Amino acid sequence: MTVPVYFETNIPSDTADGLAVQEKLVSLMEQFHYSPRDVFAMRLSLEESITNAIRHGNKFAADKRVAINCTITDTKMRVVVQDEGDGFEPESVPDHRNGVHRASQRPRAAVNEGVPEPRRIQ
Question: What's the whole-model pTM score?
Answer without folding.
Answer: 0.77
